[in-house]
Amino acid sequence: MNIGNLIKISLRALANNKMRAFLTMLGIIIGVASVITMLAIGQGSKISIQSQISEMGSNMLMIQPGAGMMGGVRQSASNMQSLKMEDYNSIRDNVSYISQISPSVSSSGQFIFGANNYPASISGVNTEYPDIRKLTINEGNMFTDQQIKSAAKVCVIGQTIITNLFTNGEDPIGKIIRFNKIPFTVIGTLNAKGYNSMGMDQDNIVLAPYTTIQKRILAITYIQGIFASATTEGVTDKATDQISTILRTNHKLKATDDDDFNIRSQEELSSMLTSTSDMMTILLACIAGISLLVGGIGIMNIMYVSVKERTREIGLRMSIGAKGKDILAQFLIEAILISFTGGIIGVIFGVGASIIVNVALSWPVSVLPYSVLLSFLVCTVTGVFFGWYPAKTASELDPIEALRYE
Amino acid sequence: MSKIIIDIKDLKRNFIVGEETVHALRGISFSIKEGEFVTIMGASGSGKSTLLNQLGCLDTPSSGEYLLDGHSVGDMDKNERSTIRNRKIGFVFQSYNLLPKTTALENVELPLLYNPSYSMKERKEKSQAALEAVGLGDRLYHKSNQMSGGQMQRVAIARALVNDPVLILADEATGNLDSRTAYEIIVLLQELYKKGRTIIFVTHNPDLAAFSSRNIVLRDGKIIKDSLNEKIESAKVALEKLPKQED
Ligand SMILES: Nc1ncnc2c1ncn2[C@@H]1O[C@H](COP(=O)(O)OP(=O)(O)OP(=O)(O)O)[C@@H](O)[C@H]1O
Ligand SMILES: [Mg+2]
Hints:
The complex is a heterodimer of chains A (406) and B (247).
Chain A: H1 3-16, H2 18-56, E1 60-65, E2 69-70, E3 73-74, H3 85-94, E4 98-113, E5 116-125, H4 129-133, E6 137-140, H5 145-149, E7 154-157, H6 159-165, E8 176-179, E9 182-190, E10 206-209, H7 210-218, E11 225-230, H8 236-250, E12 261-265, H9 266-308, H10 311-319, H11 324-360, H12 369-395, H13 399-404
Parallel strand pairs in A: 5-10, 7-9
Antiparallel strand pairs in A: 1-11, 1-12, 2-3, 4-5, 4-8, 4-11, 6-9, 7-10, 8-9
Helix pairs in contact in A: 1-11, 2-9, 2-11, 2-12, 3-8, 9-12, 11-12
Chain B: E1 4-17, E2 20-33, E3 37-42, H1 48-55, E4 63-68, E5 71-72, H2 78-88, E6 89-92, H3 104-113, H4 120-133, H5 149-161, E7 167-171, H6 179-194, E8 199-202, E9 214-219, E10 222-228, H7 235-241
Parallel strand pairs in B: 3-8, 3-9, 6-7, 7-8
Antiparallel strand pairs in B: 1-2, 1-4, 4-5, 9-10
Helix pairs in contact in B: 3-4, 3-5, 4-5, 6-7
Bound molecules: adenosine-5'-triphosphate (ATP) and magnesium ion (MG).
Adenosine-5'-triphosphate binds next to strand 1, strand 2 and helix 1 of chain B.
């Protein structure tokens, strides 16, 4: 039996039953496409989380008062007065693994410009803060050390504040906005950063000299927190240790006492977020696995049934002289053609659907080469196997039995 | 002396159904010479189809010998039997067994596709010739679902002819057709008989026995009558005698 004739036989069988071939193929197309799309969405979210983490500055350290007990009562961080400017100064002067550091105080209230008002909080920081938080100036300038020293009533505002206060499209630079009746001159604006992975609007931000907040708004001398950048991501642990030692000495804590502060590094946050996204990947892998399984079973069924119902045809072919191996070759060729064509169309649809999800819903997607390969292989192999297997059973029958098959 | 195409000796076929054994053929012996037109008759369940399937190498006997055109079928394996079916036998079924949604030409070509010695050109020429021989020269590209029962059975006969078999086997080939169409098929078989083909034709209808050269009657898996027909009637004449319009 020559292969040319077998290919001809298979092509004729497919051409004469286009609907059957199409429906069988559809199972494979859906199987492949859904797995690719789902993994692309999962991977896209994972990548976007990771890039947000690195944008946040993965070497950032946050020092807050707290975690300590005051007479058995756990205090909220902003009520605690244990962090002082002296702490800030000694960390700045003594910790070698830190490149930038800023004190932080904040107050929330109502911003008013003209007829508009908008509730937000104002952060009192120093000039190094934008670098630590990876914030960049859009227009105007950051305030200066001079302005910090004089507790100047100036501020730098984020894009959300601009849209809510300057509703007529005015240029915010040089304008005066009021925060709890105190006038602040806007001297700069920040570039948009969007939402972070926790869903917080990073543009809903107003920066002012920390001295201004301390003296003119809160009337306090302590600070509510310290932000710092470790020199590199790798030394955040060492920096944390050093800071901890300094603060314990400064606060005269005994060896048995708990810390009355806590230091959070972005590394912790980022490992938390990566573990979240890892969990998401696992979840998606499960979904993909299940849809592969379901798709595989679908393909298996449709292939099996469509070959099984052709048992009579197999009987006829054998009765006019086809050998068992001719039958097998024919059904194998048909199954391969259907499965591979379906697989390729499935890949195209899967990638297309991922792009559509990306464009229409603006979800981040990323098509993984291995998901394409995996789904393609699983579906085509299932398709070919379950096209071949019932044909094999049928070809082993006596022709007369196959002809009698109902 | 024309040569012997079929020679069977004490052929038996038992089917085991659950606990019971059905003796479908209880020892059949006969030989058929080239150019005979044999009608096999008998009551339902007498073993006609079972015998024909044996002769057509579609099934294997429980015991007994079968020489087809000088080859011992009992000694062949599955593949060799396939080849024998492909080269030496043309089978016509009661239920036509055409490939669905497939043109007459492609259906007739099918046996030749399983025979690598034919080129594409030969295949088409032979198939076309076979279809012309059964009077369907103008229906080459009609699909099986666009044809009447009689036309489908003609396509099936063309398919049985196309490989120049030594033997044409027909199991109730007229069973699904009205009597006019049935006679038309017999006319066709008689034409083939006159051209020297060997034909074995299983039927229920005793009227049809008159058109063949030999009658074999089975009962309970045994031959009860095997006679030569001295005066073969012409199916063509019988067809003309049939009322033109049946109500
Ligand atoms: N595959 C089978 N399994 C079991 N028994 C069978 C099988 N095929 C045939 N038989 C039995 O063998 C006997 C002969 O059957 P066969 O089909 O040859 O009869 P037949 O003469 O062709 O009848 P009909 O005129 O109704 O077609 C019957 O009793 C039948 O039940
Ligand atoms: Mg029968």
